[in-house]
Amino acid sequence: MFGPDRHDVFWIVGSGLKLRHATKMRPGAVYSGQQVPTLCDDLIKVPQATPSGREPNSKSVTERCPQCAEEADRRGLSTISWDF
Fold it and tell me: How confident is the model over 39-70, as pLDDT tens digits?
């Protein structure tokens, strides 16, 4: 799924936020509570994983950081929305 030639960014909703930011950190490579850099040069905190059988609270968040979106477009990156 994630080949070495792909350049992906993951749109995630950081803990306590109501907006998706893009990060190059792959889900699963980071732990909850860890701060990860975003394309807009901010740091966001990775949320706790949602218990099995429940839908993540971030699933309904569709608004994206405009600065991250602009940078992802400029670099021609593939984008994936990800919920924990």
Answer: 999 999 999 888 889 988 899 999 999 999 99
Contact predicate 33/84, CB 8 Å = no
Q: Are 35 and 4 in contact (CB under 8 A)?
A: no
Q: Which residue has the tokens 């608004």?
A: 63
What is the rounded CA–CA span in Å between residue 27 and residue 33?
13
Between CA 25 and CA 44 the distance in angstroms is 11
DSSP state of 58: G
How far is 78 from 67, CA to CA, in rounded Å? Answer: 16
What is the model's pTM? 0.85
